[in-house]
Design a protein that fits this description.
single chain, 264 residues, mainly alpha, 10 helices
């Protein structure tokens, strides 16, 4: 595991441009274990989380893992992982609440002067806040911040620019897994499914355009294809590659459509 959170210990940074970001570091592996559904109460999970808490440090400033760092997208994922595995991440949540942008979401470039939110950062924070509420019940402030971030995405119908109505980025419509830090409509729809079930709310109709796009991607045999994967070192492949039917994309897409169709 090493002591690094974002890249493996001893990583050659020149490989970042030629091979892609390494996904074998502690932070991304912990996120995958959460997504796989590893029982947080099992002995291996408890031991792993304890070791991370004692030994893993941020590449940015050397801070202990569960104290978070400066970027909101990274802190959002750390909140999700920490809350799921039973770690107290309330201090990171409070920081994220204070970093909420005027337009409702979050942006990792806030520290560099940005006053506009990004789709990528916002979905990372929303997933963290939802996991925090599942684990602890949340706080009035965390719930308000989550509602604010949801509003940011919903007013843009999950993939459009609010100013012009144009598609904000073509990659938002491409289905992928694992998402890592990146945004796409399937990740957003799966978040709103989980949040709706947690909150006991019916689906917001502003999701309908994204749902229609997702449904149009279904193959005749019911499966969904992986559109692309972020390059970089991995421990093992979870699918057969871009252009091929994907177990994980299919799983997420089918549960989104099942949730939507039951409600409407």
């Amino acid at each position: 595991m090493g002591r690094r959170r974002f890249v493996p210990k001893g990583f050659d940074w020149s490989l970042w441009k030629t091979q892609g970001q390494p996904w074998t570091a502690t932070g991304f592996v912990l996120s995958e274990l959460r997504q796989f559904g590893l029982d947080p109460a099992c002995e291996s999970a408890r031991r792993t989380v304890a070791l991370i808490g004692r030994n893993s440090r941020w590449d940015e400033g050397g801070q202990p893992f569960f104290e978070g760092e400066t970027e909101e997208c990274i802190n959002g994922r750390t909140v999700a992982d920490g809350a799921y595995f039973g770690v107290d991440v309330a201090s990171i949540v409070e920081r994220l609440i204070c970093e909420n942008q005027p337009d409702g979401g979050w942006n990792c470039e806030r520290a560099n002067g940005s006053t506009r939110s990004s789709f990528d950062t916002t979905i990372n924070v929303l997933e963290g806040l939802l996991e925090f509420e599942r684990a602890t019940g949340g706080t009035p402030a965390s719930k308000a911040a989550r509602a604010s971030g949801e509003g940011y995405l919903l007013t843009r119908h999950l993939f459009r620019r609010r100013s012009t109505g144009e598609v904000a980025a073509d990659r938002f419509l491409a289905l992928t897994h694992p998402s890592r830090w990146r945004y796409d409509i399937l990740r957003a729809l799966d978040y709103f499914r989980a949040a709706g079930q947690h909150d006991g709310k019916e689906p917001d109709q502003r999701l309908s355009e994204a749902v229609d796009h997702l449904r149009a991607r279904q193959l005749d045999d019911g499966r969904f294809t992986l559109d692309w994967q972020a390059p970089g070192r991995i421990w093992f492949a979870t699918d057969d590659g871009p252009g091929e039917p994907s177990r994980w994309v299919t799983l997420k897409a089918l549960r989104v459509l099942k949730w939507w169709d039951r409600a409407v």
